[in-house]
Amino acid sequence: MKPHLLTLIRLLAVWLLTFATGKTAFLLACSGQEHVGLSDLLQVWWHGLPMDLSTAAYLLLVPWLVLAIGLFWQGRWMHRLLMAYHALAALAVVACIIGDIALYPFWGFKLDATIFNYIDSPADALASVSGWFVAWRVLLALALAALLWAVLNRQCHSALGTHRPTARLILACALSVVLTGGALFVMLRGGLTESTMNVGNAYYSTRQFLNHSAVNPAFSLLSSSTKSERFGQLYNHLPDAEMQRTIEALGLHAEAAPTHLTPARSGMAAGSDSLPDILLIVWEGCGGQLTEAIGGHSNVVPHLDALIDEGFFFSQLRANSFRTDRGLLSILSGHISYPTHSLMKMATKAARLPSIARTLHQAGYQNTLVYGGDINFTNMKGYLMATGYDRIVCDADFSRAERATSKWGANDSLLFERLWQVMQDGRQAPAGTAGEAGGSATAAPSRRFVTALTLSSHEPWDVPYHRLSDRKLNAFAYTDAQLGRFMQRLKQSALWANTLVIILPDHGVLAGDVSVWQDPRFFHIPMVWTGGGLSMLAATHTASGPALAPHTHFPLLCAQSDLAATLLGRLGLPHDDFRWSRDVFSASYRRYPFTYSTFVDGFAFTDSTGTTIFDNIAMQPTADSNPQSQASRLLRGKAIQQLSYDLLEQE
Fold it and tell me: Which of 265, 522, 546, 601 is most buried by a 10 A CB count?
């Protein structure tokens, strides 16, 4: 009995030492501008220990079972089974640790089930880094896994011998199995209290980096992978009655809105000359920290700043999320985002969403999207095609050489060149594309809605442009230069007079000392409307809102998701089925402007009194610009989050 008990203890010690080493490496490799010392390391070890014990208990279940059987019946197959199991376990754990350290600087959050979103698009997953970056980490993981495997097997070598236990020894062995099994059960669930082990158990500091350092990456991945898909059971912060009262006070509706198409209003028939062409440019990650107009860097995006000065500028816009798949869906479908789920990846649900393109299509618009990257990433193509786009220009429409100009696909100089071609002759889809997207190669509607999604201002910040010394800022400067060149061509063409141009980012960016979970600046993004189409909008629908004149700043707080209702409202088109989108020019909106944004398992709620950022794992705010009014913002943010998941289960 004694050798078997000691074997389990030694295996436990090996796993705990492995996790402690991983935490140390994480602190050293990912601290960045964070100052960490020995006391921080000791605190991270201590507060992460319960989760490490729980993770180790999972890993010890198979050895416990094999060793228990080995107390009564032994054979060479047990050695082989443990060797095979430890090979898999060592590789999995080391891969989690190395992967977490490699991804954290890019993601800003711990390894979780988000990684599985990239399995069906490995090329996109690797696009932000070099081949050497991946190769040496893979080699390191394999080497460390082999070392760990050897150490684990050594601990089991003496436990599986060849002996014939006596009746007395059998009783002692049975007692040992029960006691060790009970200990593993307690460790696995995180103690004997009502709550079981979860990621938040490791949180202890007001510094989120230290909390993240304490979290076991293997546990984080396992926990997020096994979350219930019963969305209505998630984030039930409030009693239903209180949640509904709070939602109604915000001017939202707890009841499900219809998702079928609403007929266009009279006078807005297909081909109406009173409607402008619309060009929507979605800029990858161009957060407010890069825009001088809202307090960011100067001379990083001078062409965008110039457009802001001359256009109709939404100076208090907030992004809904932190990733392209969430942000693009918020823009096009007027839908808020979720802290732990990508709605775009849920193909069936995403296909039923309302969208700007779908409504414009019914009003006679031909809808085209231009993107230099892989349109199949995160189900983007399925979503776009299901929600009203007739034509999609993507990486497959660029040459092999053009696609090789960027890790993500054709770079932004090529994107804007192709966009210029689409704007000039985009009324006809190329052979093979229109049929696939449900369009017509001969249809020539009088108005077009063109969406362009940039990609160069993204890791690894590798662009054919060298104006700024900072690689990240230089990548944004590159896209800005291409945007400026394109806009100059558009202004000098006959297209300008009848085109409304809308420019906004898909999400913010981590720049300098800005962090997703502690700084509201991450969500503050610019949006500008410009072009001759501004005057056409004013002539079309002037029942509400200010005159859409150039050189005007719109000061009201608003969200990415409000673009849909605001634009369609200004066009005089229906938007009743956009549940989460609000017309910011309407009188009802002015009663209480607010925004709701999400990051990984958290949300930010902003109104005129300030911003509160709330971490669902820690169950506490991580930042607040006005603690005196924090309670009301928390209540409203929690109510929106709860309703969003309740409705997600219904949709």
Answer: 522
